[in-house]
Amino acid sequence: MFFRSKQKKADEQMCLSVKQSCCDFFGHNVSEHVHVERVSDDAVNIRLGFVCDTEKSSLIAHLNEHFSAASQPDQSKANINKALSKAPLEFNVRYNVPIFDSKQPPVRNVKNIIAVSSGKGGVGKSATAVNLALALKAQGARVGILDADIYGPSIPLMLGTENASPMSPDNKHMMPIVAHGLVSNSIGYLVKNEHASIWRGPMASKALTQLVTETNWPLLDYLIVDMPPGTGDIQLTMAQQLPLTAAVVVTTPQDIALSDAQKGIAMFNKLQVPVLGLVENMSFFECPACHHQSHIFSSKGAQKLSAKYSLPILAEVPLAPLIREYADAGDSLFEQAPEHSLCAIYLRGAYLLSRQMASQLVISPLAQTSKIEVTQLN
Ligand SMILES: Nc1ncnc2c1ncn2[C@@H]1O[C@H](COP(=O)(O)OP(=O)(O)OP(=O)(O)O)[C@@H](O)[C@H]1O
């Protein structure tokens, strides 16, 4: 009896510290989603609102965690081990990228589809989509990119795959094009730009649906979709047809871009697609000689939007000739200049993006357990 009550107290204590540890880990209060329950003398179930598994005497918690956390496994493991230090259990963390259910049928092999969108054209949406995809890949995720900007597909140029065309071994499905470790498909691989640009709404949406569903995607943690600019009927239909997990809105700091970005946020809100955050592109220009920063397109625009909609700013990307040069050459900034400060900006953006995804997972009723295990980084 005495032992039981002591054990109960120890369990309560352990439960509290696991919850606290999870809150620290996720960076906000998730305690009501954390369920800790002793299932036998030597096993405890921890369910982080969505996952739980026990194996023999060691406790295996499947953390549906974002990829970037896998680059700090010791940190997270240490946190949780600390919380469990009183329990005679071994604690292992396996990393799973979370999956969301969607109202639309899922795309085979694709865990999460993230739209990169902008209310206004020419703000650097495609460049942002490519660099975020490369940054997620650099952090260990399996990433694909879908060029849904069927009126101005620029992904083939930016990936250096302009002359590629997808093979179809079974005459039904296309094999995506591989470049810089990303798989991609684009209407630009299939038809000449001038042909796609005369397509009308239904034809354009049908082409997009085919591009998504008839591509033989390998197992992907993230499929980044470069949406066409704007928030008209075409964008709305496209966003409705895709089983989107979440969206990222790209803007420049100037008022005209911001007001269009708001329309983008409103569109995703209407479709109940969570917006993970904002990317402010062409935020400033830093003079290479004196390092003075000029705010060519105004300043603090994204900050205002961020405050108004409670959205994080994932990245403030400068106006930097290198971004255009690499994009035009179809080269990867991450392969050619991995130490460059621009890479750090995109890597942080990707980190925040995937972290936001993990947070959405905790609060979203659409979240489900990922069954696919992701290899932990060394
Ligand atoms: N931060 C930046 N610094 C310098 N050049 C940039 C930056 N971002 C994008 N660019 C360049 O600006 C041009 C337009 O960018 P991009 O094609 O990504 O814009 P977009 O918003 O996708 O355009 P569209 O509306 O046509 O789809 C490209 O040449 C790109 O390389």
TrEMBL record:
Q: Does the keyword Nucleotide-binding apply?
A: yes
Please give the name of this protein: Iron-sulfur cluster carrier protein
Organism equals Glaciecola siphonariae
The record's section on HAMAP family has:
Mrp_NBP35 (MF_02040)
Gene that specifies this protein: apbC
Question: PANTHER family given for it?
Answer: IRON-SULFUR PROTEIN NUBPL
Q: Does the keyword Ribosomal protein apply?
A: no
Give the keywords, sorted: ATP-binding, Hydrolase, Iron, Iron-sulfur, Metal-binding, Nucleotide-binding
Quaternary structure annotation from Swiss-Prot or TrEMBL: Homodimer.
Q: Which residues bind ATP?
A: G119, K120, G121, G122, V123, G124, K125, S126
UniProt xrefs under Pfam families: ParA
What is the documented function of this protein? Binds and transfers iron-sulfur (Fe-S) clusters to target apoproteins. Can hydrolyze ATP.
Which InterPro entries does the entry mention? Mrp-like_CS, Mrp/NBP35_ATP-bd, NUBPL-like, P-loop_NTPase, YlxH/NBP35
Q: Per the UniProt record, which residue ranges are transmembrane?
A: none
Its family?
Belongs to the Mrp/NBP35 ATP-binding proteins family.
